[in-house]
Amino acid sequence: MEKESRSKPISIEPKNVFGLRTDILGNVHFTVKQEIIYPVAGVLAIHNFSTNKQKFLRFPENYHPERIVISPDRKFIAVSEKSADNKSLINIYEIATLRKRKTLQLPPDCPNTQIGNICFTFDSRGIAVLSVEPDAFLSIFSFDKNESLIIGRASNSSQQGQATILSCNPSDATIVAVGGYCMLKIMNKTDKGFGQIGTIKGDNLQVTSITWLTSEALAAGTAETELIIVESGELKFKLRGDEIERIDLSAETESELSSTPSGSELNKDNRDVLCLTQFDKGFLYSIHNAVHVFEKTSNYTFIKKSVIRIPVTLYDEQSYKIMNVAVNAEQDTIVVATKHSQIYIGMLFVPETLKISELVFRHLGESLHVSGIVGLSVCSWKPIIMTASKDLTIRLWNYQSMKVELVKKFQIEIGVIALHPSGFFAAVGFIDLLRLMQIQLDDLKVTKAFNFPNCTQLKFSNLGHLLAAAHGKIISLICIFTFEVVQTLKGHNGTILSLSWSTDDAILASGGNDGAIYKWNVVTGERMEEILRELLNEKQRACTRMEALLGLSSKAISPREAKLKLEKAVADKDELEARHREQVAKLQEVVKSLSNENQNLRSEIVAMNRKNNGR
């Protein structure tokens, strides 16, 4: 007996994933190989921007990642995660293999097992964990054979301070700096857990970030644009983060340090000194949309070498606030992540040949949407995709080159989009009107507007001569050559959720949240068939697909009915073919005209560039 042949299971793997999760702290890092690590959707992407290839590490199901940190040797990634039942844990992965190496949890005897912050020790052989308030505890897990654990209290609910951030000492794995609201202290291992070094407590300080400049000196940023220097557990300097030009740790007083008055007053929301980061050649921190970089010129001296700023362009100023920073292993490149979903890249230091002190960040990769995507349409004849977002922008993507070819910002909310099969037009449903738009080299130009507000579905026919627009309970069929509404289809009692054309564009199917699915004769506007599914819930209705209806009805029909349907289809065939031939000819003329127009535009741009270069 022959064995039944089994078809191979079909699997779909993502090739490239575009986006950035801003709800995860520490959302950008450099690997040893100059790859960028960042979270997007349900994965951690390891992206080589030179080859534009990505590897993916999937986050565990039913767990929400909260923070990502990389080890000093850049071999491991630690991800703190929280489950649906509020259980916190830390998963440690090896970057080279993407394999999980350890899973850590705070011991049950810890008063609060919820994880607030994590940091690798300087030798990458341990990890410090700070539990959340109240009564935050500090723990240090060692990855040695004994897997030892040190645990002690970091704050006390009877006192004012709240511990939220930490930084491990660069030469002693048992010393950790802890900061937060009215909190700044240095803790070290004792026989009973942890004790404090020095007398500094951080009273009246709102510490926003901390890092070690040396094994003895700690730098802390505050919410009032201050840079605090602590040495051996004692406060040494309190400086203005946006004005300081030179730091000398051997100086006795602040008057011996160099500073330049800031030329502008900072907004109260833009005063935080964030992302304090130490590296071998110096240290840096961010204030709003700028990174201040200091170069280490001696064991005690740091001089500001550059300020790198993100230009404020499409969105409101607050969305450009820098939230995370990473420096590459060669210490010549910096990447930053902002409040909106975008990664930027820049040179770390100003080259000696340039006589400037300020640099500008540029996008790393493509310009991304900063809010939810509300519409997506794929072109039939070109390798392009159009997306629309709640951020009021439309983007045109080339899925072969993996590049964004066009970005257009609007002032009106976008509801739905559809790309014409030729790729030269698009239909965009705004909350006020439906607009047909011509796709140009760097713009979307309105060709015609229709008084159809809040369209829920748009669908071009396969040949591109008709556009089906669902608005309210009505479907309008629009001829894109004459801009006439050739048919108005009525029958739904609820919002229309889906539209689909038959292969020959003779039939349109529609489905709504009223549980009804209809088939329409495009030429006559008649309703050919209907299926009512009263038991569908809202979610099932929204997911209803129309394609299956176009081939077969869900109801059995008699041979006589089938014969009548076939005779009617044959009778309509000649009329449909004549209309299609005429409309396709018009479409070809329009496409040819647009191609010529685009070629002329390209020639003009080339000529202008040559003229400018000649100057």
TrEMBL record:
Keyword Coiled coil included in the entry's annotation: yes
- Lineage, top-rank taxon, reads Eukaryota
Q: Where are the WD repeats?
A: 366-407, 489-530
Indicate what this protein is called per its UniProt record: Uncharacterized protein
UniProt keyword terms in alphabetical order: Coiled coil, WD repeat
Species of the source: Culex quinquefasciatus
The primary gene name is 6050522
Record InterPro entries: CFA-57, WD40/YVTN_repeat-like_dom_sf, WD40_repeat_dom_sf, WD40_rpt
Give the matching Gene3D superfamilies. YVTN repeat-like/Quinoprotein amine dehydrogenase (2.130.10.10)
Q: Which residues form a coiled coil?
A: 566-611
